[in-house]
Amino acid sequence: MTAAEQPPDDRSGSESTVDHPILRPIDGLGKVVIEIIADVRTRLGRWPVYDYVDRTFRAETGVETLAAIGPLPVADSSRGFQRYGLLFSETGQGWTQPGGRLGLTIAGMYHAHGLQEEMCQLVGVVDILAREEARLAPDPDAAVELDFDLSKMPARLGSFVDRWTPESLAVALLQEPPLSFSFRLDNPTRVHSGRGLREFANVTDPVEYLRRVVRLVGADLRSPDTQALPSALGLAEALGYLDAVWQVRYHSHLLGLVPPATAARLTHPCGSVDEFDSRLSALADLLGAMKVPLEGAAEEQAVASHEKSLARLRRRLTSDMDAETFTRVSDAIHDLQAAVRIRAGGQHFGVTSELASRFGRLGVTYPPQDWGAAWETIRARCATAINTIREGLQAAE
Questions:
Q1: In the structure, how many helices (H) and strands (E) does the chain have?
Q2: Residues near 192 by Cβ (< 8 Å), separated by ≥ 6?
Q3: pLDDT tens digits for 216-253?
Q4: What whole-number distance in Å separates Cα of residue 364 and Cα of residue 64?
Q5: Count of domains forming the chain
Q6: Domain range enclosing 180
Q7: Does residue 168 share a domain with residue 238?
Q8: Residues 281 and 364 in one domain
């Protein structure tokens, strides 16, 4: 049996025993979403727009689409450097843009029927690029990097040209961690050296590819049932550590004066929707108390746009980090904004796509069945986001 013929839950022939939720069988509503996307790709050779997925899914299940997308597994770095999931938006602006195309990563294809051959072809592309990268001769006087024209790839893979253009291939590869920072705006179909790309040379088995991706992004490889619960102090400690690093770099405190009782609420569990609301209120107060100084045109633009603390933080860090680091940090700030906007949106006022999207971004199904578990998940995600911002600052020094 070839790799392309293996069913999605086949675990044979792999080099590693790494187990992670993205490799485990998907069922329930999440599987329905995956198959709707895969069906369009199989029939039409392109990814569907979100509006099609949403309308089709609701007609089949009567459930909010984001309620199914949110719980899908993600390989999430314990350091917050990168998240890798089953779905991607071609626009890069979130899943819920009605006209934006919703696609499957290699991890998503792994769980879909009808896309096994295309999945194996994409893994083969990564392998080819990784071997090209590994062949580069070092130069004692200059950095060397891969420069590969994707228009040449079909000749290397035969029938591959029937399903992909260089442009659509570039979009697909951009979603994969070893190649996520390998494309440039001025020439988006040429591949340059990726982070950890050489580690994927000679990997043609999709299972082993995904296991190496899990290791590359730094995700916790233990099974969820063996993981220790995050410290109740983790979020407060992360904020304190970020403030200390900020003070060293910018010679001022990032966090403003916050009543001790507000900070203490972040350490408490919750058992009801009212307590959940209280915890998010405390988090919003703390994040809203950030003092982010801007100068000149940046300050004028922030004032004109009515930007609050987190938006000002993103604006302040834009010029202080390289593009790769800032991308991670900006994504982390978006997570924090999602948590704040859950509170601002008022979770008591019924299901909305916007509110469900915010919960889904943070890995929680809306409406939560367990408010205590929802708070623990959001608290842990926010601690990770804050640590990502702090590590970005340290890396930029």
A1: 16, 6
A2: 145, 146, 147, 182, 183, 184
A3: 887 654 434 333 334 444 677 778 778 878 887 888 88
A4: 13
A5: 2
A6: 1-226
A7: no
A8: yes
